[in-house]
Write a structure and sequence with these properties.
about 425 residues, seven-stranded mixed beta sheet
Amino acid sequence: MKTITLCAMAALGFSVAAQAADPIKIGASLPLTGNFSVSGAKHEKGYQLCVDMINEKGGVLGRPLDLIISDNRSDIGTALSQYERFINVDNVDLVFGTFSSKLTFPISAVLAKNGMVHPVPAGGALRIYTQGHKNLFYFQQDAAEYVGSSVLGVLEELIPEGDMPSKVALVHADDFFANAIAAGLLGEKVTDPGGGEIADLAPGYLKDAGLEIVYTEKWPEEGFSDWLNLANSIKNSGADMIVGLTASAEEAVQLTRALKTVRAEPKLLYLSQGTQAEFHEGLGDATEGLLIHTSWHEAVPFVGKLAGEDFSNQDFQAAFKEKFGNAPDEDSAIPFAVCQGMEQAMLGAGSTDNAEMGEWLYDRTKEDPVRTVLGPFSWGEEGLPVDRPFLMAQWQNGELKFVYPKGEFDGVADLIHPKPNW
């Protein structure tokens, strides 16, 4: 077995004191295979980069971080058993959350039962945050049901009245996250699994904008392949705005490709997925003018904290590219921000005690937030961030450009409207 002496560790830039101390164990169950594997693999990179950089600076509270990642295969039962094992067998000090609302909803009960802080990287469905669980903290902008507020902002603030679309076709996967966005756009009621009402979102963001909903359709969560018939139905509806809420970037590629094939030509095409490089690689020039919501963008100049020092969004991108050889996207930036937040919680509480870390996180304010590459965070009692609008981006000439909100940062591009024909 190869061993490394403490002197050698110090020569490599590691803190001798931190290496000699008991490690802080962190458990994360991620979908490294299965339906969510593309995003899950990127989440792994975001977590690992952050942990490695903290360890290079000496760890936290004089202790190195030991990140334990398990593949849940995009399966609920596997994710549940893995978090149970992290807590009861591996005796982890803290956990990082998983990817997708589908997996986050059930594991939130396990983590709450065991008194663990639950930092959520990707689980935006409102019902996750209305279960009454404590120490739940979402590291994105807001619940998925409220994404439509930024879509409405684009319509009302960036599109001249004479160029506004008037008829909308909305299609979506039968997926936790996609269903949640659709509920907000369509003005539906949100219920818990027992049927109790959580929120009534009427009239919905689309009707609020004066748009007529002329076609809706939902496809099954797994195994759907009838994209051309779906695209033809959208085209035949006469909609000049299309909303496609997919469960994955792969589905977004399939839907967009089908719309191009049948020559559906809307003024505006908004997708819930498609910020990833793989999306552009799969579609090429067909991405031009597509509007997508996002939690992160390379141009946004947020400055966070890492190892007690300022660490900007641009620093993150440089470090990611140096380690992995390619540029990051939001699927790596979000988990990196989770790790930043939990490091600040440990330092702020002076402990890895989950109750104390949770109390410290709840005490954050707009004036004294957690600072990350996704921006500043403070949370309400239910675990949703306070005053954080979603960013809107658009593919322009092969690059994803930040287009909304206006006036907050340098580098905001003008919206291309209407969308160019295929």
